[in-house]
Amino acid sequence: MSKKEVAIVMGSASDKESMQQAADMLEKFGVPFAWHIMSAHRTPDRVHEFITSAAKEGTQVFIAAAGKAAHLAGVVASLTIHPVIGVPMTTSDLGGLDSLLSTVQMPPGIPVATTAIGKAGAKNAALLAVSILALNNAGYQEKLVQYRKDQTEAVNKADQELQKELG
Ligand code: RP5
Q1: In what order do the strands lie in the sheet with 61-66?
Q2: Which of 88, 121, 134, 145 gives a 20 to 30 Å CA spacing to 27?
Q3: Which of 14, 72, 60, 66 is nearest to 34 (CA)?
Q4: From the centroid of its chain, how far is CA 113?
Q5: What pLDDT digit, counting tens, does each position of 79-132 carry?
Q6: Which residue has its alpha carbon closest to ligand 1 atom 14?
Q7: Degrees (nearest 5) of the Cα angle 142, 148, 152?
Q8: pTM across the whole model
Q9: CB neighbours of 1 closer than 8 A, spacing ≥ 6?
Q10: Phi, psi for 114 (deg, rounded to 5)
Q11: At what angle do helices 72-79 and 97-104 cross, to 10 degrees?
Q12: Of all protein residues, whose CA lies closest to atom 12 belonging to ligand 1?
């Protein structure tokens, strides 16, 4: 069994800055993960080889990020029955709407769970991956509960500070 429970694949090195959010979140939860650059159209053989071998070696969830005509997540989903989370990358021409529609509008039969565009989507992709793993992992369940508590406290604290500023 692979120690990499999650694999992040992204279409280009230009996606790395956004996907750092996903990597950081997986690190925070202590999830072992792999992170690679591979492209559905520039390196299709590599995508096929990596996804099929990673699934065989025990990777549970795949996160696939791409921009523009973003078919990477769909191609990954075609190669595995494991859950695939697609992250549409922000683009300079259409702001990521191109990536969003390319990723989310999968025809029936091969699902891709698509998150928001860009960094927010990258962060949520990691959280969703942890939620999936947590179904069979009490340690991840506890960490997710704590994460939500911390988030709630941070919002409440921000409100208290705002109220102090306002007098
Ligand atoms: C996609 O095309 C990549 O995922 C990236 O978001 C976009 C642009 O790639 P580069 O031209 O920056 O390599 O395949």
Answers
A1: 33-37, 6-10, 61-66, 84-88, 113-114
A2: 88
A3: 60
A4: 9
A5: 999 999 999 999 999 999 999 999 999 999 999 999 999 999 999 999 999 999
A6: 11
A7: 145
A8: 0.96
A9: 57, 58
A10: -105, 135
A11: 20
A12: 14
